[in-house]
Structures are given as structure tokens and as C-alpha cells.
Amino acid sequence: MIMLLLRRASFWVALLGIVGTVLLVEKTQAQLNEPAPPPPITPPTKPFKTGIAASGLVEALNENTNIGVPVSGLVTQVFVKVWDKVKAGDPLFSLDDRDLQAQLLVERAEVGVGAATLERVRDQLGRLEGVTDPRAVSQDDLKTRRNDVAVAAAQLDAARAAVAETEALVGRLVVRAPIDATILQVNTRAGEFLSLGAPTSPMVLGNLDEMQLRADVDEQIAPRVKVGKNAIGFLKGDSTTPIPMEFVRIEPYVIPKVSLTGASDERVDTRVLQVIFKFPHNTPKSVYVGQQMDVYIQE
Q: Residue 233 in 3-state DSSP?
């Protein structure tokens, strides 16, 4: 009796499993047959009958300037903030110079010692040269005194040169703007330690009076790019506002692609030809340095 009940239960369990599997397959098939939902943002339409599609990155005029440091050191003061406009030579930030200032005190003292020594040997030489009786002073003594003056003068010059060198090193620890520009990014604060060759620049500068676009064209279609052909650009997320771009130049060096779009068919070993375009003078206010754009280049 018990065996019969177990067989009947197994039969109904198997039947329910078959029915559930059939229903799951039908549901999955129905989902696959549903039309794909439209993209959240309509992609831009190709503005030219024939053209070359590329992706680009917005830059400041003449490219962004990544500020470096002359030596590794501790940041003592930051003089600017993002959006500040600076002129060439304006201070940006300073590094710790206490060791050089201490060295400067010693070297300035050595200059004082050298000046006093030179004054002393010159006075001794002057007294010997003032003796009228040639028998009272030998020529060897005069020659020795003159050599002492020359040596003291050279030592004083060397001490002054050492002071000038240290002062130049102290001045170099105040990092200054190399160009007239706007502060785009500040990546350092007072108290942080900056190292030579760090992957992140402590500051990024750029001239925002005009901006440019660096478009990456896949090397497989790079031969289709022609000098002087303008382009139309669209900001990511805005496919309704075309921005006319003026051709500037083609970079003569093909580089590995570094700005990946994340497409499934994209190869990381692709190399790209970079083409530079200039924005019109009435650049939209919504354009910022570092933004990506879809670009269509005329053929």
C-alpha cells in the first residue's frame, strides 16, 4: 500500500515538473518575441550623406596643461582654486623650502666671511705697496700678497654663486603658471606630499577662451580622413543640438586607443588617428573640458 502511494506521488510530482517547464519555456519565448525598448536617449542622426563617425574629447585651446613639480616635496600653500584665471608667472602652489632656507643662512654667512677676508688681504697688500723703500719689502712678499687677494676674491665669488644657486632653488619651489589660463582642476592641498612622476598632476590648466575637440578615428577608416574637412559634433546625451566644428589639423602620429566607449565589439588593441577641430566662437555654455562627443566628419 505504501509503495503504491509513493508511486502515485512521484507520478504527480513529475507531471507538475513537466507542466512547469512548459509554462516557463512559453513565458521565456514570449519575452524574447517582445520588441526591444527604445534607447533612453535617441542617438544622433548622421548629418552628412557620407561621413566618418568618431568619438572625441573636449580640450582647452592648445591642449590641457598638466602642472608638474621640480622635486618631490611637501605642499605648504596653494594660492589658487578651480575657475581662477591666472597669468603666466602667477604662483600656483609652493613646496617646503626649510632645508634650503637653512642652507642659505650658512652660505650668506660664508659670503660675509669671504668679504671680510678679501678686505683684510687687500689692506695688507695696500700697506706693503705703500712702502717707499724697495729694500724693506721683497718682491716675493708682494707677489704672495697679490695671490692672496686673488684667491680671496675667487672664494668670495664662489660663495656668492652658491647663494645665487640656492636662491634659484628656493624660487623654483614656488610653482608658477606657464601660460595665461584658467584653473581646471586642483588635485593637491596644503600638507600633502607630491612626488616626481606621480600619475596624477597636482593641477591642470587650460585656456577656455577657445576650446577644441580631439577626435579619435579608427585606424581602419583613417585613410578616409581628408585635410580641411569640417565636422558636426554632438554632446553625449544631447542628440538634438549639432555643433559645427572647424578643421584645425591631423596629428601625424597614430596612437593606441585610450578613450574606450565600452561597446561589445570594441578592441582594446585598436590604434587611432587623432584629428583636431575647433569650436565656433559661440560655444554652448554646456560644453566643458573633458566631455565626450560624437563626431561626424565630412568626406
A: strand
Give me the CATH number covering residue 145. 1.10.287
Residues 211 and 293 in one domain: yes
Q: Return the C-alpha cell found at 290.
A: 573633458
Out of 153, 172, 191, a domain closes at 172
The DSSP code sequence of 198-213 is -SS-SEEEEEEEEEEE
- Separation of alpha carbons 173 and 190, rounded Å: 14
- Considering the domain architecture, whether residues 193 and 293 belong to the same structural domain is answered as yes
Expressed as residue numbers, the domain containing 162 is 98-172
Q: What are the residues facing 276 on neighbouring strands?
A: 214, 249
Q: Report the C-alpha gap between 202 and 198 in whole angstroms.
A: 9
* Boundary-marking domain end, from 172, 200, 233: 172
Note the pLDDT tens digit of each residue in 39-84: 556 666 777 777 888 989 998 877 789 999 999 999 999 999 999 9
268 lies in the same domain as 182: yes
Could you tell me the pTM of the whole model?
Answer: 0.68
Residue 231 burial (CB count, 10 A): 24
Q: In angstroms, what is the C-alpha Rg of the chain?
A: 38
Euclidean distance between CA atoms 195 and 191, whole angstroms: 13
Q: Copy the grid coordinates of residue 92.
A: 600656483
CB 51, CB 221: distance < 8 Å: no
